[in-house]
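Record now logged for everyone:
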Amino acid sequence: MTSHTTAHRRTNAEVDELLNASRAIVDSEPGQITIRHLFYRLVGIGLVPKTENGYKGLDRHLMNWRRSGKLPWGVFADNSRWCYQSQAFDGLEDALAATVSIYRRNLWADTPDRLEIWTEKDAIAGILYDVAGMWGVPVLPLRGFSSGTLLYNAAETIREATRNGKKTVIYYFGDHDPSGVLIDQKSISTLEKDFNVHPRFERLAVTEEQIKTFDLPTRATKKSTHSKNFKGGSVEIDAMPMQALRDLVGSAIVRHIDHGELERVRKIESEEKATLAEMSRRWMA
């Protein structure tokens, strides 16, 4: 394996080596990954320099490889909304069929807790929703330091849950850097001080323990107004193994599940879906 930790123009053989390594990493993941995660994996094996130019160079190669069919477009997560459109149907038959396919009974209707997954970054939101969505748990990307409007809307949802006797629990995923460790703290502070709501909050990633456990690549911490009391190197959440992020979401959610109640709800859901399907068949008969 050739090391490319300094900037230079790659030979065709080196480009092929980078492509083959990228394919192997993509194939080793059970679901989508972020381009940033691929970048850190390639940095770890010495094929890409750990610089912004190194990232931009990889991004250019990925665009060319996907255009030429050497890598599929769909393997990379990007949670950016590409289209705003209301759902419409071709008729009542189409609407009934769609209802049958998407119907999910609310697992949390009779539980004391209401869960939310918060994340600093859009791209990671899709990775986390791979698991959270299966349990009917919402994922909220903060996109850095959140706007007052976003947090107001979040507070209103939490307040409504409180009125219904439910405790909101927020699990957070963000970078380990001067800004990253403050985003969640400031968001919770705003919820409590400005909007008088008090959810239970837990940061699931990135933690100092995970940096050691997964031997995550660090980068030099930039000097800023937030870095005064921050010690050590910075780590982006994209450096975490994608499956580890999914596992963290799943294990956090399962803490709140009564498995006897889960079986009961799933049985009712199955019976209700069957009823909807029968209604659809009768309508189309």
Observations:
- The mean pLDDT is 87.
- The two ends are 64 Å apart (CA to CA).
- The beta strands are 113-119, 139-141, 167-173, 200-205.
- Residues 259-284 form the longest helix (26 residues).
